[in-house]
Each structure stands twice: as structure tokens, then as C-alpha cells.
């Protein structure tokens, strides 16, 4: 018995998300034109970096569940976070530009976007929002250059959505230091981060405090979570804290309750919604290219009415999600956005993302489940984006409370 290679030879080349310098094909309403020329140039440099440095390697790193540490040098050269250095003369980028950066990253790969967001949005964001001026001067210069990498320890083994009221990790004052005890789970970069922002409940006041825990601190240990089926590049860790002694100088001086933690999550939750838009756009573009090149019954499948119907529904999801995020960024830049705005965006955009990547997988048939055709990675990673930074159900309760004036939270 012999095995024919004829069928494989007639397959279209593996489609990839948009990889040329111009606007994204999925940006049907040209939202990118809302950026200034300087902002467009920054997006163009990032797009080129993702095309040359990420796209060629991402499938192999995803398959091996390894992190491409060389990307940190690339991010540093792009200068996307130079503004966060207290000594920098740069202005903070607009929320629209920051959102589109997150979108572009996820358009290339959700794990890379998540890794960037963990370091810049969660770890650096905690120091920016809750650190003293001295703490910002001490940590942010090296972190903005990706010389020191940060992680964010909030979720616990038995506490996810209820972590605000059910946090079990404790902090006990002992002279000029604090003793941390407890455990954290799903901590991105946790296995290698130079600093981890640990949130713990003050044993005396019952308030949630934040701490900068440095790599190598006695009593701190991290173990990689294995056998993941999504975001495989991200090195998530289980963290254990046993009599972990942290100096008072490393306590975030302006983190005095969970309300301060929530300020950070409100911002990063919108970043996850932007990532969902990036994945939605990528799924549409992969499916569009495939539909033009894949032939069945003697013609490209893009000539079939049902395929065009599917593509238009995908484009509609992408366009609606993109438009929602543009408006959210405008509200953020105006300083008038609220938790419910981020909540609705995260819930809506991730649902549309999950739907769209599923349709793209459907359009690619069997080729949709192998890494060679890209969409399989997006389908798997979408499951994580859908759930983290607050599940859809929790976001609906936040938005529902806002619109009705009635809380449906339990407890």
C-alpha cells in the first residue's frame, strides 16, 4: 500500500493574519485613521516587528509551551513603554494607541499579547497606580526597558471571581517588614519574573494590600502549570508564599484596599477586550485568504454563497467590536469611563471573538485544527481570553447592576 501526496500538494498555502505594512483588511471602517501620523508610525513599527520576529516562530514556541525571551529585547527597542520611566520626557500614549497596540499583538498571537499585558499593564500598572514616587523611580526605569520583568499575583487556587472578598493570602506586619503567607495560581511570567506584585489581606485590618516581591525572596516559590491547551507560550505558575518576608519599602504605598486593586483591573480589562478584537480580526483575515485560495468543485470556496455569508458575519463581529473599543478609548481619554464600560466591552468582545474564531475553524474544515493553518492556535487561545480578567458572567453582573441599580451579586 502506498500513500499519495497528491492531495497535500493541491492544498492552498497556509493562510496567515495580515502581514504587510498597510491597514488591516479587517478594519472595514478604517478606525486606524483615527490615529495621528505619529501614532500610525508606531503601529507600523510594531506590525513590522510582529511580521518578522513573531510570526515565523510563534507556532513552534506554542507547540513546545516555551516562551521566546528574545522578544523582550525587541519590545525594548520599539520603545512602547519608554514613557513609563519617571525620567522620560515622553507623554503617556492615548488610550486609543495603547488599545491598538494590544490589538496588534493579539492579532499576531494571544500569548505574546498576554505576556506584554502582564508585564506592562498589570505589573508596571500596579506600580504606576499604587506605588509611591520613590517606588516608581526604583522599579519603572528597568521595567520600561524590559530589563526586569514583572508579574501580577492576585488569583488564588480557590479564589477567582470571588477574590475580592475571599482572598486567603495574608500579610502580617513584623517590625519594618511584612510576612506573607498563602498561594496564588495562574500567574503569568510567574516562573521567571524579577518582581511579582502580590496582593494579600492585612491580618489586622482585613484590607487588601499590594507588595513588590523580588525574585529569590526566601519563602517564595513558583512552579510552572503544565498541560495547558491555551496560551501555551505564557509561563503560568502556581506560587507559594511561606513566611515570605518583604520590607515595608516594597509595600505599594497607595494600595490600601481592593478598590485600589480594582483601578488596575478596570484598565487591563479593557486591554483584554482589545486583544479579543485583534483575534477576531485575525480569524476573519485567515478565513478570507483561505476562502480565496481553497478550491472545491472546481472553484474557490469564496464563490459559494454560504461561505460569503459566514465571512460577512465574521467581519460584522470584528467591526462592531472594534467600534465599541474605539469609543471606550475615547471615554478613557476623557476620564469619564467606569467599571461597567470595561465590563461590557470585555464581555461583548470576547463572546464575538469566540464565535468568530469558531466560524473560521469551520470554514477551514480539517485544516482548521492544525497549527500549520494558524486558526487552530486562535481557537484554543480564545478560550483563555474569554475567561481571564473577569468571566463573562461576572461582567454581566457589573453591567446589570449599573443599568438596573440593583445588585445580583451573591454574598
TrEMBL record:
Domain Acyl-CoA dehydrogenase/oxidase N-terminal: 37-145
PROSITE patterns assigned: ACYL_COA_DH_1 (PS00072), ACYL_COA_DH_2 (PS00073)
Segments of this protein annotated with the region Disordered: 1-22
Cofactor(s) needed: FAD
All copies of domain Acyl-CoA oxidase/dehydrogenase middle, residue ranges: 151-244
Bias type Low complexity, positions: 1-13
Leader sequence segment: none
Protein name per its UniProtKB record: Acyl-CoA dehydrogenase family protein
Amino acid at each position: 500500500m502506498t500513500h499519495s501526496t497528491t492531495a497535500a500538494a493541491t492544498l492552498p498555502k497556509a493562510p496567515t493574519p495580515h502581514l504587510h505594512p498597510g491597514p488591516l483588511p479587517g478594519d472595514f471602517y478604517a478606525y486606524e485613521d483615527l490615529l495621528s501620523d505619529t501614532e500610525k508610525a508606531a503601529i507600523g513599527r510594531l506590525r513590522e516587528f510582529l511580521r518578522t520576529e513573531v510570526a515565523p516562530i510563534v507556532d513552534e514556541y506554542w507547540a513546545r509551551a516555551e516562551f521566546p525571551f528574545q522578544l523582550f529585547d525587541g519590545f525594548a527597542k520599539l520603545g512602547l513603554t519608554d514613557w513609563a520611566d519617571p525620567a522620560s520626557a515622553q507623554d503617556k500614549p492615548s488610550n486609543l494607541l495603547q488599545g491598538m497596540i494590544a490589538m496588534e499583538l493579539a492579532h499576531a498571537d494571544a500569548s505574546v499579547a498576554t505576556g506584554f499585558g502582564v508585564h506592562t499593564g498589570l505589573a508596571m500598572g500596579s506600580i504606576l497606580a499604587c506605588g509611591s514616587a520613590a517606588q516608581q523611580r526604583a522599579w519603572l526605569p528597568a521595567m520600561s526597558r524590559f530589563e526586569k520583568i514583572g508579574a501580577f499575583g492576585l488569583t488564588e487556587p480557590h479564589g477567582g471571581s470571588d477574590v475580592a472578598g475571599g482572598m486567603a493570602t495574608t500579610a502580617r506586619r513584623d517590625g519594618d517588614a511584612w510576612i506573607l503567607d498563602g498561594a496564588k495560581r495562574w500567574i503569568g511570567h510567574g516562573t521567571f519574573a524579577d518582581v511579582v506584585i502580590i496582593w494579600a489581606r492585612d491580618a489586622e485590618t482585613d484590607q487588601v494590600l499590594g507588595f513588590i516581591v523580588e525574585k529569590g525572596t526566601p519563602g517564595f516559590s513558583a512552579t510552572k502549570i503544565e498541560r495547558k491547551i491555551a496560551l501555551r507560550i505564557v509561563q503560568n505558575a502556581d506560587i507559594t508564599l511561606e513566611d515570605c518576608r518583604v520590607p515595608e519599602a516594597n509595600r505599594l504605598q497607595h494600595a490600601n484596599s481592593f478598590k485600589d486593586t480594582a483601578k488596575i483591573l478596570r484598565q487591563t480589562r479593557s486591554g483584554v477586550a482589545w486583544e479579543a478584537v485583534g483575534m477576531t480580526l485575525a480569524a476573519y483575515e485567515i478565513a478570507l485568504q483561505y476562502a480565496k485560495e481553497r478550491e472545491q468543485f472546481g472553484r474557490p470556496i469564496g464563490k459559494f454563497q454560504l461561505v460569503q455569508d459566514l465571512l460577512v458575519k465574521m467581519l460584522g463581529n470584528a467591526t462592531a467590536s472594534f467600534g465599541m473599543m474605539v469609543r471606550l478609548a475615547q471615554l478613557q481619554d476623557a476620564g469619564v469611563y467606569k467599571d461597567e464600560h470595561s465590563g461590557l466591552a470585555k464581555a461583548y468582545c470576547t463572546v464575538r471573538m469566540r464565535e468568530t474564531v469558531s466560524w473560521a475553524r469551520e470554514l477551514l474544515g480539517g485544516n482548521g485544527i492544525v497549527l500549520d493553518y494558524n486558526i487552530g492556535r486562535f481557537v484554543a487561545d480564545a478560550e483563555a481570553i474569554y475567561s481571564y480578567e473577569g468571566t463573562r458572567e461576572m461582567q454581566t453582573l457589573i453591567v446589570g447592576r449599573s443599568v438596573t441599580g440593583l445588585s445580583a451579586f451573591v454574598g
